[in-house]
Amino acid sequence: MTTSELLMVFLQGTWGTVKLFGVTLIGSLVLGTVLAAMRVSPTPVLRGAAAAYVNIVRNTPLTLVMFFCVFGLPFLDIRASRDSALNSFVLACVALIAYTSCFVAETLRSGISTIPVGQAEAARAIGLNFGQTLRFVILPQAFRTVIPPLGSVIIAMLKNTSIASAFNNRELISAMRGAIEQRGDITLIVILATAAAYLVLSLVLGRIFDYLEKKWVIVR
Question: Which chain regions cross the lipid bilayer (predicted)?
């Protein structure tokens, strides 16, 4: 394997990681927000269901969640596509979303708890229902409050995408393994290059969240 071919393998692996991350980011934020809303809902059934889901999935190793989604769901005849590569990608994203959304929900719930109760009471006083109060008053402030911890959750999620390599997904770790198989003489360089790629991606995310924190910080 020539240097240019090796570089192409790493670029393909990086793109695979970015795709996994992008889909998981959107899905986790959406599902995590729904779970957080359910956790603070006045309906006991919704609160109980969300609490059960978060506590069960959050305390289950991600590898087991991934194993269930990638192998268990097809066993139950639940598939995203007949194409094995696409099916593995989608199911890996499902696993990552299911797992990460629990941490997003708990982070967002901690932000909701910092909002003064008087704001919710004022929203109800002007006729807003629970959903409208969350949407227009509580959640916008909660997201701005939890930008730093939410950034940590999302950066951890980026690194968690590496587990998908064990389930027929092409990303940085699978690219590293392929490169080592072809060029065992530069194993250390390949490992360091992989670590550097994750470091760069994590630093970029960190800078983005630093910018968001400074731009949207709430001064109390």
Answer: 20-38, 50-73, 85-105, 186-209
